[in-house]
Amino acid sequence: MLINELLQLKFEQYKAQRKSQCCNRCQLRYAEDLKQCPYCSHLDEEGLAVLFKQKERSYLARRELGIWFLFFCSIIAASLLLIR
Ligand SMILES: [Zn+2]
What we know:
Blueprint: H1 2-16, E1 20-22, E2 29-31, H2 45-83
Antiparallel strand pairs: 1-2
The chain binds zinc ion.
Zinc ion is lined by residues 23, 25-26, 28, 37, 39-40.
């Protein structure tokens, strides 16, 4: 059956994923088998501040995209209700 094959593929994909841990310094996730965080271990405090600024900009961009999706979904739902 197709569903069983899809579930098997999803399970294989899940098993292939490397376990991750959260960095105490930058709160980004990285592979558990690495000794140091690849995102912030080479950065000084100034570099870490830049990294936090990038994280904040990325968060705000994703948030804005979500707001746009909600807006367009509302317009589509409202137009479908009006057409009926
Ligand atoms: Zn880090």
